[in-house]
Amino acid sequence: CEVFDVCRMDIRPCTGCVRCGYEGPCVQKDDVEKIRARLLESDMVVFATPLYYYGMTAQLKAVVDRFCAYNSSLNGRHLKSALLTVAWNADDWTFDALTAHYRTLVRYIRFKDMGMVLGYGCGTPSMTRNSGCPEEAYRLGRGL
Fold first, then answer.
1. Apex 103 CA angle, 120 and 130, nearest 5
2. How far apart are CA 35 and CA 62, in angstroms?
3. What per-residue confidence (pLDDT) applies to 76?
4. Quick one: which of 103, 109, 124 has its CA closest to 79?
5. What's the rounded mean pLDDT across residues 5-27?
6. What digits encode the pLDDT tens for the residues 49-61?
7. What are phi and psi of 2, to 5 degrees?
8. Among positive and negative, which fits the CA dihedral 120, 125, 130, 133?
9. For residue 79, how many other CB atoms are within 10 A of its CB?
10. Could you tell me the pTM of the whole model?
């Protein structure tokens, strides 16, 4: 298992130039190459993100956007995937936009969704501890 903290990595946004031809290499020379290499030899990818304005963080979205440079290779892998996310808000609609985006990504890239942990009302560490979210994430992981 390898964790990539995309907030601390050098990741530039996709420019939409399509010089990659959807199969690479990407003209951007940054840390996405490390992620690409590991992703293409992995069995599973877990998207972990706090909810920012009802979507994934910009840093994670930049990585997802760069998937286009190895779209065919990624599409053919049929990786397992999961989504782990938390938000301060506890309204029932809180994760609607993010889960729709995740499901669309899973369908398009032909990932096999293994589950989602949606941490409603997890605005502070103590709120998160008391939410049941950590236990739910643990159960998801154990069930894989």
1. 15
2. 12
3. 87
4. 109
5. 94
6. 999 999 999 999 9
7. -125, 135
8. positive
9. 19
10. 0.94
User: CB of 44 within 8 A of CB of 82?
Assistant: yes
- Among all chains, which residue has been given the structure tokens 């990786």? 79
Question: pLDDT averaged over the chain?
Answer: 95
SS (H, E, C) the chain: CCCCCHHHCCCCCCCCCCCCCCCCCCCCCCCHHHHHHHHCCCCEEEEEEECECCECCHHHHHHHHHHHHHHHHHHCCCCEEEEEEECCCCCCCCCHHHHHHHHHHHHHHCCEEEEEEEECCCCCHHHHHCCCHHHHHHHHHHCC
Nearest to 89 by CA among 114, 127, 122: 122
In 3D space, the residue among 54, 55, 69, 50 whose CA is nearest the CA of residue 12 turns out to be: 69
Overall fold of domain 6-142: Rossmann fold (3.40.50)
Question: What is the C-alpha separation between 16 and 65, in angstroms, rounded?
Answer: 9
**What does the buried/exposed string (b/e) look like for 53-71 if buried means 16 or more CB atoms within 10 Å of the residue's CB?**
eebbbeebbbbbebbbbbb
